[in-house]
Amino acid sequence: MSPSVLPPFDPYDPLGLDDLLTAEDRAVRDTVRAWAAERVSPHIADWYERGELPVIRELARELGSIGALGMQLTGYGCAGASAVQYGLACLELEAADSGIRSLVSVQGSLAMYALHRFGSPEQKEEWLPRMAAGEVIGCFGLTEPDIGSDPAAMRTRARRDGSDWVLDGRKMWITNGSVAGVAVVWAQTDEGIRGFAVPAGTPGFHAPEIRHKWSLRASVTSELVLDGVRLPADAVLPGVTGLRGPLGCLSHARYGIVWGAMGAARACFEAALDYARVREQFGRPIGGFQLTQAKLADMAVELHKGVLLAHHLGRRMDAGRLRPEQISFGKLNNVREAIGICRTARTVLGANGISLEYPVMRHATNLESVLTYEGTVEMHQLVLGKALTGLDAFRG
Q: What's the pLDDT at 307?
């Protein structure tokens, strides 16, 4: 090909990754991007500063109307989108804010996914259509106050009482908890770990909101309190017993994080690039100085490598070939690199980098939570270490 017919270099897509997308992929991406630009971006700094998401129920219904809730699932009003399309949606949502992507991830990849994969036909019919429409918000109760990376040690317990189940325990750091209409709660039983669909309003079930967060401030985070919560026999998810149930859900959600983290990174990179072109020092834009250009080049390389990795994992998921270890690979790399991009972008913006007039510090603090939840750095390193060596370092 002659250089004269090469497409122009795009600073916002330097590798030409848009060429990997189908027309349908672009349509999904553009729909979510336009929604986020209209409904989230103008308000997110205020919501973050106030530490609340006051219109979460309204946003959930709107996300349902564009097919973003449970979008990889089929039937029950779900979009049946590809893994790549779901990933693109996560990227665009997290480019607006990690809290918005978390709302969608927990709804679709955790609560809805658990019901869709492991629920009874009656449970699916009861909950999934309304959750897909955003009429009912769901949450996922696995983490406990003293139990994080080792869910097998959970203390929440469900015991049989006649034909009923009775649940007692606590769950912590639960996204959507206090606004959820249904909680998928995992508990120890005499048969092993089981999942339960717990409707909000069940006696003994409470979901107080967690305040005073310095990360994911535009997100509803709660504790789940279960004091003698009595449920009928048909509340248990019949399709799974043991940790493979919740861990399978987490793998699905982690995949979305691989994409989402690159959305936060993209927002910070683009803010730094735009700022460097107009901010002047010593009589010229700071983008004209070698050290600033080195920062921008390094950010662009890591950002678009991460997006390329996400694309690759998405294609593998669509082909039914994506292993959990490969998701760990993506989550470990992309979140870690996204935080590095945010921190470098902050230095380009100087003092303005800490202002909520720019997205950088908000994304940086949000990503500290993303780095920890759904598998810490250390856990994903050990997952990969075990896969590489064949030796298990989790337990001595």
A: 98
Bridge partners, residue 195, by sequence: 186
H helices within 133-243, ranges in order? none
Both structure tokens of 387 = 């896969």
Instruction: Return d(Cα 232, Cα 223) in angstroms, integer.
Output: 23
pLDDT given for residue 395 in this prediction: 76
Q: What share of the chain is helix, strand, coil (3-state, %, to 5)?
A: 55, 15, 30
pLDDT digits (tens, 9 = 90+) for 264-300: 999 999 999 999 999 999 999 999 999 999 999 999 9
Concatenating the DSSP letter of every residue in 357-379 gives TSSHHHHHHHHHHHHHTTS-HHH
Low-confidence ranges of the chain (pLDDT < 70): 1-3, 396
Structure tokens at 153: 């040690």
State the fold for domain 3-132. Butyryl-Coa Dehydrogenase, subunit A; domain 1 (1.10.540)
| Residue range 21-56, pLDDT digits in tens | 999 999 999 999 999 999 999 999 999 999 999 999
Task: For 189-216, write each residue's pLDDT tens digit.
Answer: 999 999 999 999 999 999 999 999 999 9
Residue 178 is classified by DSSP as G
Q: Is 111 exposed, middle or buried (0-12, 13-18, 19+ CB in 10 A)?
A: buried
- Answer yes or no: are the C-beta atoms of 322 and 255 closer than 8 Å: yes
Q: Output the CA torsion sign for 388, 242, 261, 341.
A: negative
CATH class of 245-389: mainly alpha
pLDDT at 242: 97
Q: How many CB atoms within 10 Å of residue 266? A: 23
* Superfamily of the domain at 138-241: Butyryl-CoA Dehydrogenase, subunit A, domain 2 (2.40.110.10)
Residue 221, SS3 per DSSP: strand
pLDDT of residue 59: 98
Catalytic residue among 62, 223, 374, 378: 374
Residues 6+ apart with CB under 8 A from 247: 151, 324
Asked if 92 is an active-site residue, the reply is: no
User: Which 3 state secondary structure label does DSSP give 159?
Assistant: strand
